[in-house]
Design brief:
This protein is an alpha+beta fold. It is 36% helix and 16% strand. The protein has 5 helices and 6 strands; from the N terminus they run H-H-H-E-E-E-E-E-H-H-E. Strands 3-2-1-4-5-6 form a 6-stranded antiparallel sheet.
C-alpha cells in the first residue's frame, strides 16, 4: 500500500529549510562585514600613523637643514632666536612651544612665534609669553595643510648637562679646551589627528597647552602624550637630542 506525504507537510519542511539557509547566509554576511570593517580599521590606522610619522619627520628634516647653515644657526642663538631663549640659564626647565602652521614658510622663526610652558612646583605655567605658540583646533591655520587633518606641536628645551669634558678630543688639554661649552637641546615633535577622536576640542586643546613634553621631577606630571592617549587621540611623538656645533667667527 503506497503512502504519500501530505502537501502541507512538504510546504512546512521547505519553509524550515529556507529559514535555515537565511540564517546561515545572514551569519556569513555578518562575518564578512565584520572582517571588512576590521580590515578597513587596520588600513585607516596604518595610513594615519604613516601620515603622522611623515609630519613629524618633516619638522626634523627642516630644522636640521636650517641649522646646517652657520649663519642661520648663529641667528637662532642671538636676539629672539629660539635657541637664544632656550639656552639662557634662567629658562632652565622651560619649554618653548611652536605650532607648525601650513601657511607659514617657517613656523620656527624666532621665539616671538612661540609660547612657554613649565611647571612651578605642581602648578602649570603657560602664559608667560602669551598663547600664540599653542596649537588650537578651532583655528584652521593651525593645521599643517588645508585638509585640516594633522596638527603638529614642537617643543624645545635645554638638555641636562652631560659629563665633564664629554666632548673633549683625545690629546686636548683639559685646562685649555673649551669643548665643555658645547650645549645640547632636546626637540620634541608631536603630531596628532584630532578628527579621529571622539574627544572634544576643548579637551584636546587642554592637552596641547597645559602639559609639557617631559616629566618634571618635582611635579611628577603627565606629559602631552599621556593626555592625548587618555583622550584616545591618534598621535605620533618623536624626540631628538641635538648637540650644537661651534660656529666659526668667519
Amino acid at each position: 500500500m503506497n503512502q504519500s506525504i501530505p502537501s502541507n507537510a512538504q510546504k512546512g519542511a521547505t519553509l524550515i529549510v529556507v529559514l535555515v539557509l537565511l540564517v546561515v547566509i545572514t551569519i556569513v554576511g555578518t562575518w564578512a562585514i565584520r572582517g571588512s570593517m576590521t580590515s578597513l580599521n587596520i588600513a585607516t590606522n596604518a595610513q594615519a600613523q604613516a601620515l603622522l610619522q611623515q609630519a613629524s619627520d618633516a619638522v626634523f628634516f627642516s630644522l636640521e637643514n636650517q641649522t646646517s647653515n652657520d649663519l642661520t644657526l648663529t641667528q637662532m642663538q642671538i636676539g629672539d632666536g629660539m635657541l637664544a631663549y632656550v639656552l639662557r640659564p634662567e629658562n632652565k626647565g622651560k619649554e618653548l612651544v611652536f605650532c607648525i602652521r601650513g601657511n607659514e614658510a617657517n613656523s620656527l622663526e624666532g621665539s616671538r612665534n612661540a609660547s612657554v610652558v613649565y611647571w612651578d612646583g605642581t602648578a602649570i605655567k603657560n602664559t608667560e609669553q602669551g598663547t600664540t605658540g599653542f596649537c588650537k583646533l578651532s583655528r584652521t591655520a593651525d593645521f599643517i595643510s588645508k585638509r585640516a587633518a594633522v596638527v603638529t606641536r614642537v617643543a624645545i628645551r635645554p638638555a641636562n648637562a652631560g659629563k665633564d669634558w664629554e666632548h673633549m678630543l683625545e690629546g686636548d688639554d683639559p685646562l685649555m679646551s673649551k669643548t665643555n661649552q658645547i650645549q645640547k637641546v632636546i626637540v620634541s615633535v608631536t603630531s596628532l589627528i584630532p578628527n579621529l577622536s571622539s574627544s572634544s576640542t576643548a579637551d584636546i586643546n587642554t592637552c596641547l597647552t597645559n602639559y609639557t613634553s617631559f616629566v618634571d621631577p618635582v611635579a611628577g606630571n603627565k606629559t602631552v602624550t599621556d593626555c592625548l592617549a587618555e583622550e584616545n587621540v591618534p598621535y605620533s611623538s618623536q624626540e631628538m637630542e641635538y648637540t650644537l656645533k661651534p660656529v666659526s667667527a668667519s
